[in-house]
């Protein structure tokens, strides 16, 4: 069986390719102009410059330089991770979701859509993915008790969260990071994303409910029929806490804080530093209200940062690609080459090409923030050259990054879901592939509409 290389190994290979490229790709530059505090590429200004190949030692000094270049985003992710670590440790999210799910056990008709809506809200506000693993066995237990199968139990948790993640309206780890790199207002385009999200979520709910109805009517319709499912893994080591008033108040603080962040972004021009500070305040307040105490609050803060270390540091590693290409004066040459090819096609194909490129990249770099750091520095100037709003480049990244997470084997969250559910990967693919195609069609239609209305 062929093993997919480690994500960092893939990025390092790309760094090496970029370094080799500085020897073979003609060096060139675009003139830049500043408009409203942002740097834009001047169309038609590309010109050749002296070749400046990156040497062996410079290749490695580019890595710490990449970390420095991406420091604002890196620390933003770390601090957000720490804040969510505190909130997670209070048990508020686990208890709140469990309370809602428990009340829905006897409401078969409303169970699937309501659970999927709840998890989708977590998806587009906090970007939850691996965090939902604890709820998969609960979902499976409820689904089987109601006459469904393990696929339904897993899908209503994971695809609900995935729908919100694709929508991404307030996701600080993907849309927030990408918009920061693109130098456009954080969480701008909220209304357009919300419209696409509604269609994404509706498609997922309909898909899961239709499958559930078939399984309930005829168990042989299950993709798991005849399969011996090992569900020995349970949440015994992760007991769901009681939904106390303190934990309810923590959730009020969390969602109230998100509302404050929206106000700050829209009315006060908040950016990454302000958002990171706000999330820290939310986290520390949650620690106080959740009665964690000083030591446990900061222990949870550090633990939360540990959990996002992979994604945070990969931003700096990926930023090294840009540093190498910039030092070798070839990044503008790459943009020029891409723009020359795409300009020969109908204009709308530019954003479709971006979406396809991001979907392909996601297989190898499933970290949303890492993929943003890798691809956005190229896609943003390409959008400028093609006369597209930078928001389109962010949308193409967002949908390309998020949709395939529910099917690619390199997704840590997906493999974690399937592992705890005991569902073979091939059976999941058999169940999910049609929905992935539906989601992609919705995303492409959304991107085409965004192109023609010039979404900002």
Layout of secondary structure:
Layout: H1 7-24, E1 28-29, E2 32-35, E3 38-41, E4 47-48, H2 56-69, H3 71-90, H4 92-104, H5 108-126, H6 136-145, H7 150-167, H8 175-182, H9 190-217, H10 245-267, H11 272-289, H12 293-307, H13 309-327, H14 331-342, H15 349-364, H16 368-385, H17 390-402, H18 412-421, H19 425-453
Antiparallel strand pairs: 1-4, 2-3
Give structural attributes.
mainly alpha, 19 helices, 456 residues, 4 strands, two-stranded antiparallel sheet, globular
Structural account:
It is found in: Cell membrane. This is YfcC family protein. InterPro entries: C4_dicarb_anaerob_car-like (IPR018385), DASS-Related_Transporters (IPR051679). Its main location: membrane. It is a multi-pass membrane protein. This protein has 456 residues and is mostly helical. Helix content is 70%, strand content 3%. It contains 19 helices and 4 strands. It has helices spanning 7-24, 56-69, 71-90, 92-104, 108-126, 136-145, 150-167, 175-182, 190-217, 245-267, 272-289, 293-307, 309-327, 331-342, 349-364, 368-385, 390-402, 412-421, 425-453; strands at 28-29, 32-35, 38-41, 47-48. Strands 1-4 form a two-stranded antiparallel ribbon. Strands 2-3 form a two-stranded antiparallel sheet. A hairpin with a 2-residue loop joins strand 2 and strand 3. Helix 7 (150-167) packs antiparallel against helix 9. The radius of gyration is 23 Å and the shape is globular. Mean pLDDT is 83; it is low at 230-237.
């Amino acid at each position: 069986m062929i093993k997919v290389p480690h994500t960092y190994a893939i990025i390092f290979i790309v760094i090496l390719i970029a370094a080799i490229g500085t020897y073979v790709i003609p060096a060139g530059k675009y003139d830049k102009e500043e408009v409203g505090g942002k740097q834009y590429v001047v169309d038609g200004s590309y010109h050749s410059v002296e070749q400046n190949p990156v040497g062996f030692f410079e290749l490695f000094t580019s890595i710490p330089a990449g970390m420095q270049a991406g420091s604002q985003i890196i620390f933003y992710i770390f601090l957000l991770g720490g804040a969510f670590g505190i909130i997670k440790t209070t048990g508020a999210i686990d208890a709140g979701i469990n309370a809602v799910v428990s009340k829905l056990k006897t409401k078969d008709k409303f169970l699937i859509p309501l659970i999927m809506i709840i998890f989708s809200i977590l998806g587009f506000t906090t970007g939850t993915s691996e965090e939902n693993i604890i709820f998969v066995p609960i979902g499976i237990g409820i689904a089987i008790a109601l006459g469904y199968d393990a696929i339904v139990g897993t899908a209503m948790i994971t695809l609900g969260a995935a729908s919100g993640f694709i929508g991404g309206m307030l996701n600080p780890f993907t849309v927030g990071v990408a918009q920061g790199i693109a130098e456009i207002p954080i969480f701008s385009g909220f209304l357009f994303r919300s419209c696409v999200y509604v269609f994404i979520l509706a498609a997922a709910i309909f898909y899961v409910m239709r499958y559930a109805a078939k399984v309930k009517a005829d168990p042989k319709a299950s993709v798991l029929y005849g399969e011996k499912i090992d569900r020995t893994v349970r949440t015994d080591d992760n007991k769901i806490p009681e939904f106390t008033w303190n934990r309810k108040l923590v959730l009020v603080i969390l969602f109230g804080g998100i509302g404050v962040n929206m106000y700050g972004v829209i009315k006060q021009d908040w950016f990454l530093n302000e958002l990171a500070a706000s999330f820290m305040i939310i986290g520390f307040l949650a620690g106080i209200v959740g009665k964690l105490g000083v030591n446990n609050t900061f222990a949870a803060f550090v633990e939360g940062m540990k959990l996002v270390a992979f994604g945070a540091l990969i931003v700096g590693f990926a930023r090294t690609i840009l540093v190498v290409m910039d030092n070798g004066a070839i990044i503008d040459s790459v943009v020029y080459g891409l723009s020359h090819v795409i300009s020969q096609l109908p204009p709308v194909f530019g954003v479709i090409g971006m979406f396809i490129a991001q979907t392909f990249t996601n297989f190898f770099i499933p970290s949303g923030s890492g993929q943003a750091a890798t691809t956005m520095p190229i896609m943003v100037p390409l959008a400028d050259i093609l006369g597209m709003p930078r928001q389109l480049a962010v949308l193409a990244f967002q949908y390309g990054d998020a949709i395939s997470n529910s099917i690619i084997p390199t997704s840590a969250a997906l493999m974690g879901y399937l592992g705890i559910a005991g569902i073979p990967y091939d059976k999941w693919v058999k169940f999910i592939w049609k929905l992935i195609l539906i989601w992609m069609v919705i995303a492409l239609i959304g991107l085409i509409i965004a192109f023609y209305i010039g979404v900002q």
